[in-house]
Amino acid sequence: MKLNNNWVLGLMETNIRFNISLNSVQRKTPYNKYFIASQFIEYTPIFTLTLNSCDLKILYSIKKIFHCGFISKTSYKSQLKISNINHIYSYVLPFFEKNHLLSKKRIDFEKFRKIILILSNANNNDNIVDYNKLNKLTYDLIKSNIELDLELLKNTIDIR
């Protein structure tokens, strides 16, 4: 199935998420002859597109556009998920830089993009990371996703 990028973009306006997963990781690093356990925060970027389970063919076509990703399916929804930072950097970012989102998702994309660039530079060049900036962007993006979840919840149930 061949899809038009503008049609795909319109579909994504309400069905995508740009998110960051934070995980605490303990690593042992050598110090003289002893190993010292250190706590690290691991940042995992996650791009997801969620559709109704009957739209599985559309998800596979979109996966071809991105050249990567994993598709999962439940009885009521299908989801394309991309969490490899190199794939996000190489395929997801260029797609949205070329095809601009028009809704609030554009702001989320910009935050996500800045986070990916910071993490990519840190991984590739052993650069010093501005953790204050990284943490602020991550916090803002996660907060935006929580606000979206609350809005969806309000629209789904009658809150009195």
Annotation, overall tally of beta strands: 4
**The CATH C-level class name:** Alpha Beta
Indicate the CATH architecture: Roll
Largest pleated sheet: 4 strands, antiparallel
Shape designation: globular
Structure commentary:
The chain has about 160 residues and is of the alpha+beta class. It has a single domain (about 5-155), classed as Roll (Endonuclease I-creI), CATH 3.10.28. The chain contains five helices and four strands. Strands 1-2-4-3 form a four-stranded antiparallel beta sheet. Strand 1 (about 15-30) and strand 2 (about 35-50) form a beta hairpin. Helix 3 crosses helix 4 (about 105-125) and helix 4 packs antiparallel against helix 5 (about 130-155). The protein is globular. The model has no long low-confidence stretch (mean pLDDT about 85). Keywords: Endonuclease, Hydrolase, Mitochondrion, Nuclease. InterPro entries: Homing_endonucl, LAGLIDADG_dom, LAGLIDADG_Endonuclease. This is Putative LAGLIDADG homing endonuclease.
Q: Keywords, please?
A:
alpha+beta, globular, Endonuclease I-creI
Summary, kept brief:
Residues 10-116 form the Homing endonuclease LAGLIDADG domain. With 160 residues, the chain is of the alpha+beta class.
Give the helices and strands, then pairings.
Elements: H1 5-15, E1 16-31, E2 34-52, H2 56-66, E3 70-73, E4 77-82, H3 85-98, H4 105-125, H5 131-156
Antiparallel strand pairs: 1-2, 2-4, 3-4
Helix pairs in contact: 3-4, 4-5
